[in-house]
Amino acid sequence: MKKSVNAFCAFHLTEHKELIDGCGRPRGVAPIPLSRGIDMLMDTWSGLDMGLDIDAETTSKFWKRLWKLPMLSRYKVFLWRACWGIIPTVETLDRRDMEINEVCPMCNYDSESIFHALIDCTEIQIMWVMANFDYSSRMYHANVLEWMAVEAGSWRDEQLCKAAVAMYCVWERRNAKKFSNELIRAENLWPKVERIMEEYQAANLTDLNNATVLPALEWKKPVYPYVKLNVDASVRREGGGYLGGLVRDTSGCCLGAFMSHTQAPDDAALLEAMALRKGLEMALKIGCTHVWVEVDASLVTDMLKTPCAHASALNAICRDILNFSENFQHVSFNWIPIICNNVADFITRKVRPDS
Ligand SMILES: [Zn+2]
């Protein structure tokens, strides 16, 4: 039994301050490696019959869903542990022969099982009542996994997430009382659950907005060790087109520029790709090693970033560009709005005989 207590303590090492000493070691037991602890714990579990009235398929469906829930992993892990019965309540510690003759520290009446501590304690019923979902099915169960596997199947993700966060907050409150003698009002629990979920959703929305935000609408100096190559092209009325571009360093100084024209082709994307190829030739000639390329033709950058075997003139030029890029230590291809490419655009227009 000492073995399972060791494993139990090691497993909780990072999450439960009450079980670890000032040096981060489990209290009262010799430190053992975490991986060995988990192995030992698994051994203990394999002989453990949870005696629940649920079939394996329902349970496995619940586990799969749990890890995909839209909430922070700390709440998923906590729910997972609550389901497995590995929360160090008075009763679970007692079952592991750690002699503790105590009742639930919140109601000071019932024996503190995991289901009692997180769900059934009279002290926290107000939280379930204040909830904006119906959690009354908890009364028909006596085990966290059973409640989840049997009832949560008909809940929306939001309801399940909130139940997990609620149990987490209840456990935090219980520990604050037990270890710091600090009493958090049960009426504050549900508003806290709401706030945690709102913050999570707001953070995710911000991420989404940031992902779709456009690049800044001005040209930016490259960051060391890169030089920046801007290229552009325009179609010529009589066929073919004009190409132009320049390389600038981290202080914005021009290291080289080129302008040229071609009799064919007269396709804008092809001309842009040809300008890019010419720009890279110039960059190599002036000794650049890290090149940050910017063009305002997204078709070209898309093709360079996801090369395919499709037979087309544009693909052929892009493959040639990728091969030529091997001459540098690193080349990065980036699309920018036309407004950020105005110097390259200006050079290209200067090639026109009428300018
Ligand atoms: Zn209680």
From TrEMBL:
Alphabetized GO MF terms: nucleic acid binding; RNA-DNA hybrid ribonuclease activity
Source species, domain of life: Eukaryota
Domain RNase H type-1 span(s) in chain numbering: 230-347
A Pfam family annotated for this UniProt entry: zf-RVT
Record-linked InterPro entries: RNase_H-like (IPR053151), RNase_H-like_dom_plant (IPR044730), RNaseH-like_sf (IPR012337), RNaseH_domain (IPR002156), RNaseH_sf (IPR036397), RVT-Znf (IPR026960)
Domain Reverse transcriptase zinc-binding stretches: 57-128
Record field: transmembrane: none
SUPFAM superfamilies recorded: Ribonuclease H-like (SSF53098)
PANTHER family: OS05G0353850 PROTEIN, POLYNUCLEOTIDYL TRANSFERASE, RIBONUCLEASE H-LIKE SUPERFAMILY PROTEIN
Protein name: Uncharacterized protein
Species for this entry: Senna tora
Source lineage: Eukaryota, Viridiplantae, Streptophyta, Embryophyta, Tracheophyta
